[in-house]
Specification:
This protein is α/β, with parallel strands linked by helices. It has a single domain, classed as Aldolase class I (TIM Barrel, Alpha-Beta Barrel). The protein has 9 helices and 8 strands. An 8-stranded parallel β-barrel has the order 1-2-3-4-5-6-7-8, surrounded by 5 helices. Helix 6 links the parallel strand 5 and strand 6. 42% of the residues are buried. The protein binds 2-phosphoglycolic acid (PGA). 2-phosphoglycolic acid (PGA) binds next to strand 8.
Length: 253
């Protein structure tokens, strides 16, 4: 049976203030209820997860934007995968380029992935090149990032992960600057081929490949129909419930 398509809202540090965040959560939950063919995941700032977890109601799932590389111990400011699970979170974004830019290493990403899986969370592993060169150098960068990030993951756990292809050059721009459906199609095939060769699994055991980088109402439909992906990781457009609803509608079909 085909997997459900998935749309994940990465709110980053938005919206400003508790009241607005609560309103956004309620509005997006109502949109998600309308588009039942899509699995909708909302990732607010972590301080809100515990409260929002009580408001999930089956229409949306909750995701964290990060998790600790450690199971527990003296790491001030970190929070654990087991605690996320205990409060009702089921997804976690790992290795986002904005965290990698703050110093997160492939090793830390790999440990986070392992802990997420161990604790029953679905990790969303973000990979993506800084720029596309005409010689295709970016493909080896992508390959290396993918394999290093996955080094802590066993073959049997591969299908428990989601891989988000997020080219850095496309993040935080507009639909016109995002990847084109044909380039996305090729890149998604490339990622699948790399994983099939490396892990020798059947295609049905591959992780879902999704796309992130300026997904907006204007490009969601063409990217989902021709991009060879199983969903989206949506940044800025997820801060507007109307836009986010349009994206859910396109994916719902
Ligand atoms: P964007 O962000 O949709 O604003 O490009 C995507 C992301 O960073 O996950």
């Amino acid at each position: 049976m085909a997997r459900k398509l998935i749309v994940i809202a990465n709110w980053k540090m938005g919206p400003s203030g508790y009241k607005k965040a609560r309103e956004l959560f309620i509005s997006e939950k109502a949109k998600a209820k309308k588009y039942r063919k899509v699995k909708t995941v909302l990732c607010p700032q972590s301080v809100l997860l515990s409260e929002f977890s009580k408001m999930q109601n089956g229409s949306v799932s909750l995701g964290a934007q990060d998790v600790s590389f450690a199971e527990g111990g003296s790491f001030t400011g970190e929070f654990s995968a087991s605690l996320l699970r205990d409060i009702g979170v089921s997804f976690v974004i790992v290795g986002h380029s904005e965290r990698r830019a703050l110093g997160e290493t492939d090793d830390a990403v790999s440990r986070k992935l392992g802990l997420a899986v161990k604790n029953g969370l679905t990790p969303i592993l973000c990979v993506g090149e800084r720029e596309r060169d005409i010689h295709g150098e970016y493909l080896s960068i992508l390959r290396q990032q993918l394999f290093l990030s996955l080094s802590g993951i066993q073959r049997k756990d591969l299908s428990k992960i989601i891989v988000a292809y997020e080219p850095i050059w496309a993040i935080g721009k507009t639909a016109d600057d995002a990847v084109t459906p044909d380039k996305l199609h090729q890149t998604s095939l490339f990622i699948k081929k790399m994983l099939l060769e490396r892990y020798g699994v059947s295609p049905s055991s591959l992780p879902a490949i999704i796309y992130g980088g300026s997904v907006e109402p204007d490009n969601a439909e063409e990217l989902i129909s021709d991009g060879n992906v199983e969903g989206f990781l949506v940044g800025h457009a997820s801060l507007d419930a109307g836009d986010f609803g349009e994206i859910l509608k396109s994916v719902n079909g």
